[in-house]
Amino acid sequence: MPEATLRTLSDPGRAGPASRLSRLAPVHWLALAFLAAALGFAAVAWATGNGFYLRLATEALIFAGLAMSVDLLLGYTGLLSLGQALYFGLGAYVSALVLRDVAPSFWLAMAAALLAGGVAGLIGGVIANRVKGVYFALITFGLAQVAAKTVYNTRALGASDGLIGIPQIRVGFGPFSLDTADPLSFFLLVLGLTVAAYAGLSYLMDAPFGRTLAAIRANEKRVPFLGFNAWRYKLAVYVLAACVAALAGALYPMLRGFVSPELMFFETSGNAVITVIVGGVGTLVGPVVGSLLLTALRSVVGSWTEHHLIVVGVIFMLSVIFLRKGLVGALLARLNRRGEQGRTAP
Amino acid sequence: MSKNALLRSVYALSPLLALLAAPLATAGTAEAADPIRIGVVTPLSGTYAPIGQQVRWGLELATKEVNAAGGILGRQVELLFEDEEANPAVATQKAEKLFQVNKVDFLTGTVNSGSTLAVGQLAERNGRLIATTVSFSDAITTDKCSPNVFRVNARAGQQSAALAEWLAKDKPKAKVYYLGPDYEMGRSTVAAFKAAAEKTGAQSTGEVFAPLGSKDYSQYFGQLRAARPSVLYTSTAGNDTVRLLTQMGEYGLLRNLTIVGASGTVTAQNIGAIGKAADGFVTGVGYSAELATPENQAFVAAFRKEYNTAPDLYGADSYGLIGFFKAAVEKAGGTDTDALRKAMEGLSWSTPQGAKTMRAGDHQAIQDMYAVRIAADGSSTRFDVVGTVPGDAAIGPDQCTRF
Questions:
Q1: Which of B20, B45, B103 to mutate to test the interface with A (most CBs of A within 10 A)?
Q2: Has keyword Transport (chain B) (predicted)?
Q3: What would the CATH number be for the domain defined by B157-285+371-395?
């Protein structure tokens, strides 16, 4: 496991209350820098009236949520899920059905997706956690394929055509409200949710819960000797990841106005794993950076050549070979090294 | 240290910042330029790439001819291609880029119906028009019709109606057995043809559904024989058709049995692998390269000269779309969405497939349909036209209620 990340994880624990901000771990500084960049981007795009790039960035953030859920499993617990799109797609379909058929309410759609993601995650988790390693990866893959094929063949869910006609809605916050049809408002909303997810999840990963997950990743057999039930923790993080993926998925039909079974296909799951590995495993901010980078790259390269998948594949291979800890992992290693030099210098 | 760390992170992220500033750089190029721009969102990679290739060739050939003859209203036509990977999630993103960044006047190319429906909704929200030249799901111009979506190719209903018409004429009161792949599209295709065939007097003797990707079809041959049909209808596709027809040939079931099927059952892609077993297969379709009209012969010759292969249904329908668009823009006097929609509704134009008329009520093109029989004599294969069904007989009622 990345040494840098372990140190990162232990940093906030050492920070005293007085110097909490100045002792903020480098990974959080990266997250703040990223947030500033995102707000700067939003300002530029808004000033130039460029809705397309705002909506593309919104989509990247939505898929970043899926990638974060993969990172919870892969980076923190050492479980490779090849079927996380199952929960993403489930959230998307539940949200779409609620918005179209029940009520155009943002909070109701999110709550329904969360509930569905939790229940499905519990069922899927009980099945998948019966096995370890490559078998875990295969079972998660199989579960997602079964779900995708079922949706693909269910007429009531639009079958292969998917569902269209998901309305654009207003999101209410007490006296305020914003419109999902407005690119800037919806981008800021999704950005806010992403930051909240990042903050909440990285807090949880620094808490004893996350430390136990790290112990499971390091050596699962020794965890019971410390008095913890590894299976329960693995199930809990699996359900947590399913909920995160379902919430991210619930935002998709609000942005694009449709859902289709392709959202559950292996392509979606596989892309999320690639995003995490390119961005930085076990950092939570890595998946977000990776998602923005790969989405932008696909959009730009895709317009030049139909061989864009080769470009993404080469980037993936290069990052596996040269940036073992992904983009953010490499950055963190540099920051930590320099930080140490700064501390030891007189 | 913290301040430095922040500065360092910003410095380290600067390539990303440059990428994020992309909207600034492209904002200036968004003005509507002189040429008429048509966006083409079509699968250029993956399983559907051969279809996307035909779409691209058809559109490029027609555009070249239009531009050589002076363009549309004196403006050249420019095609902008984007790969949709046959995935609606990719298609909408690419289509939005074409609409908002490239400011295209019109959009086409989507292949699978999911993409067409999703991009159609996007077109509505962007106030532009699209047309599909490939998707044949009935929903696009019936219950999920959109005022901003047009279809210039024949839908599934027209194909099965044409095949049923031919069957009623050529083999009156035929005893038909149905064999389809066991998934939603396979079952609905069989159900649609069954309804059409029973209406024209055919007798149904039974049906069976085999799993997608079946390796062995011989387990169904007992039921098939016992039902004593004179006609077998199948809606399998790709390699499933290869296995079904070759196994039927090995079991001697092809004698005294006419095989008919959906338009995607035997195609240029799998006919080589089926070989002689494809001989005599009949389907209802909107085009064959063997059509003996002068317009079609000229089109096929030009297509062969340019791309060294014959056009198929998708290439022909896509080629015809440019003629439709040209006629509509000239009638409307420009590319304004409302004027263009009005001009397209009820428009008649000529294509290599014969004259087509865009029905105003549901934006579905009406065209003559053809019953096509495959002649495979070992070395070469032809799609011979064995019957023509007039457009009005195949089109069916207008079921669109949205506009």
A1: B20
A2: yes
A3: 3.40.50.2300
